[in-house]
From TrEMBL:
The keyword Transmembrane helix applies. It comes from Streptomyces viridochromogenes. Residues 1-23 are annotated as: Disordered. This is Membrane protein. Residues 1-10 have a biased composition (Pro residues). The keyword Transmembrane applies. It comes from the Bacteria. The chain crosses the membrane at residues 68-87. Keywords: Membrane, Transmembrane, Transmembrane helix.
Amino acid sequence: MGGPGDPPEGTPEGGPGGGEEEYRSVVFDESFVRAARLQEFSAQERLADHAPAVRRRPPMRRGLSRQALILVLLIAVAFGTAIYMGVRHPYQTPANSGPPAEPLRMTVIPLAPQGKVPGATDTGYLYAHSPAAQFRIGAEGIPLPAARRTAHFSDSQVTNALSIAKDYIVRSSLYPEVLTGDQVRAVRVLLDPDQLDQFDQSFGHPAADGRHAPTGWLVRFDASQAELADRRIRVQGTLQAAETDSSTLEVTADHTFVYALRAVAAEARDAGEKAAEASLFTVRRELHFRFDREDLRLHQTQLVVSYVQAGPLSCAEDSTNRLHPLLAGQTAKAGGPAGTDPYATGGATALCGSLAAGSQPKV
């Protein structure tokens, strides 16, 4: 008599050694059942919904485990951060950077008038009767010359050097907030990082030592004494670029700036008095800029020489920190800089010049 699991007629002849033997290699575990695309409805579901015997199951979502997904995200974030820091970090030091920038050497020479400073209420009249009559206005007076490639620098690199030098000159000589205020950032951001300490020390602790005079870096007036009577500053000069070695470009700038100034007279205006007469103030700046390829890439420069002549000024006034212009009707104070010991080290010999009469307006 067959067992409870055998067919009533017994095991068919010629068949395998048992029904279980044929499907022993197939395992219908829970994962196999869940992965099936077809699923049989229960009898109750078929009666209630008149549905077909089977339904199609949506495919299972197969993806990365949570740990693997987090690992991928961390790697992507680290990789992105490395790229960002390598491209955007402003203080990266490239492998091919040149030698450190030299300190700026500066000379500021005040020019004393030979008599009273001429003035007029009409600034246009002053300019028209001065040597600056044909000067251009503002940045138009600083045109870029035709750039020619050098042995180791392309046309575009030479043009870039000239453009950066012009940008520095405009910001340090023409920006009103620099001329009559305390703003220096517009100039500072154009300097090579190696010169920033010297720049900051010049404005934090000015000194007439040929290294730390603010007026060697930029033009600025004593705002308590003078203000711009006309923002249309007259300018004339030249820019020249030359290669000094295979890794260095130099730009030489020589420009004359003529400012119309008048005394700060808020009290006089409040009292209903007429506006103070304006006068002209002239600054000649000869600047030497130096560029390596990193400077060109970062739009910055090394200012290595600054030679400034400015007047009318009084030699008795200190022109290290700010320029104290003599205005309409004023004359130079008697005396001059204190004597300088030529045997002493660490100090620059004081200089003062005389402003030629022909440089003043004919009024």
